[in-house]
Amino acid sequence: MADRRRRPRVVIVFDLDGVVYRGDTPLPGAVSALAALSRAGHSLYFLTNNSTRSRAHYADKLTRMGIPTGAEQVVTSSYLTGRYLAERGGAGKRAYLVGEHGMAEELRLAGVEIAPDDGDEPVDYVVVGLDRNLTYARLARAHELIQRGARFIATNRDATYPVEDGREIPGGGAMVAALEHSTGVRAVTIGKPEPYPWRHILATTGVAPADALMVGDRPETDVLGAKRLGMRTALVLTGVTRGEAVANLPEEQRPDA
Q1: Residues 20-47: pLDDT tens digits?
Q2: What is the pTM of this model?
Q3: Which run of H or of E encompasses 102?
Q4: For the chain, give me the number of helices (H) and strands (E)?
């Protein structure tokens, strides 16, 4: 009888915006490539710094695109922020958000209470991500709470966010930078390129970093963070990075493929 040894399982982690899709449109070849990897027995995860939507939303979106996905395969910066706070006694504490509905949903699921836009009750955290409806009044409220001692948490520092027509708009990092500048307080960052996202996935899957591959479009987040943990990396040019920029990348941001 032939010796049919199983191939070692590889965990492949994909960024979403600019890697799997742009807006609501899958990128050419993405659906078939992911299906082939899944058939080959690899474990697929999706890691995004986008804080605006919940894991369930992204799982449903991918499934509707023809990429069957469970919420447990999706790791967002909002989900990670909720886990980070819960692991450090944040359940039952209050957070004021500069962010959208998906962030509030994930933090509530982690047991964090969402503070209103007004009132004098103590607030433990100010959590900041992409907020496409941000007003000056809410920015000022976040500033005031940080100045009073609320811990400043950034879901991510992405300066820009790609949209479907090829443009880039200000990302969550732009809002973080505004508050850092006004308060003089440096935020604790949860998302890529910090190690917390990949450590969570590696711990969940039980694989060694050498058996995991990160596929992304941002050298300064996707490649840098994964390489620091010893993971393999691949950079695609369908998102924010252009081919001519690759040759000039610093060593720590150069992908394996």
Answers
A1: 998 889 999 999 999 999 999 999 999 9
A2: 0.92
A3: helix 101-109
A4: 9, 14
Delimit the domains of the chain by residue range: 11-49+193-253, 91-189
Q: Higher-confidence residue: 240 or 180?
A: 180
Q: Is the dihedral of CA 144, 147, 153, 154 positive or negative?
A: positive
Residue 17 DSSP label: B
Give the Cα separation of 165 and 114 in Å (integer).
34
pLDDT of res. 5 = 47
Give how far Cα 193 sits from Cα of 47, 240, 255, Å. Answer: 11, 16, 14
- Active-site residue, 17 included: yes
Identical fold for domains 11-49+193-253 and 91-189, yes or no, is: yes
State the architecture of 11-49+193-253 in CATH terms.
3-Layer(aba) Sandwich (3.40)
What would be the CATH architecture of the domain defined by 91-189?
A: 3-Layer(aba) Sandwich (3.40)
Among 3, 17, 60, 131, which one carries the catalytic annotation? 17
Is 117 in the active site?
no
> Per the residue annotation, which of 15, 131, 217, 222 is the catalytic one?
15
> If you average pLDDT over every residue of the chain, what do you get?
94
Q: List, for residues 87-110, the tens digit of each pLDDT value.
A: 999 999 999 999 999 999 999 999
